[in-house]
């Protein structure tokens, strides 16, 4: 059963462009991680300053393996002096099990 991890990160307006740059410039190591299924960075449109970082994993064990890896540490160490504190002090990690999923029918 797949698991989803959603990291809700508050980013003040003045740091949002830099925050998005950080993700555009990421090395992509997560995509090579065994058990990784999906990644999305969701930008807030209105009513909040929280970005959502959505990842999907084939199991909790696969996520834990990524979380304990050197690639994870490298991916989460930077962001610059202005960005890192703004993001790290106000975030929440939510965990979900996927119990139903669908995709469009494609011929």
UniProtKB/TrEMBL annotation:
- Catalytic activity, EC: 1.14.-.-
**Pfam family for this entry, one:** ABM
User: Does Oxidoreductase show up as a keyword for this record?
Assistant: yes
Q: Could you tell me which Gene3D superfamilies the record lists for this protein?
A: 3.30.70.100
Is Ubl conjugation one of the keywords?
no
Domain ABM: start-end pairs: 3-93
Q: Please give the organism.
A: Geodermatophilus maliterrae
MF annotations from Gene Ontology: monooxygenase activity
Q: Which InterPro entries match?
A: ABM_dom (IPR007138), Dimeric_a/b-barrel (IPR011008), Heme-degrading_MO (IPR050404)
User: Where does this protein have coiled-coil stretches?
Assistant: none
What is the name of this protein?
Antibiotic biosynthesis monooxygenase
Keyword list, A-Z: Monooxygenase, Oxidoreductase
């Amino acid at each position: 059963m797949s698991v989803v991890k959603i990291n809700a990160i508050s980013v003040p307006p003045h740091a949002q462009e830099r925050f998005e740059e950080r993700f555009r410039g990421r090395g992509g190591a997560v995509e090579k991680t065994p058990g990784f299924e999906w990644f999305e960075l969701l930008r807030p449109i209105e009513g909040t300053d929280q970005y959502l970082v959505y990842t999907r994993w084939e199991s909790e064990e696969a996520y834990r393996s990524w979380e304990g890896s050197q690639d994870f540490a490298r991916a989460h160490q930077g962001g610059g002096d202005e960005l890192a504190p703004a993001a790290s002090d106000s975030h929440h990690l939510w965990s979900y099990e996927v119990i139903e999923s669908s995709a469009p029918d494609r011929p």
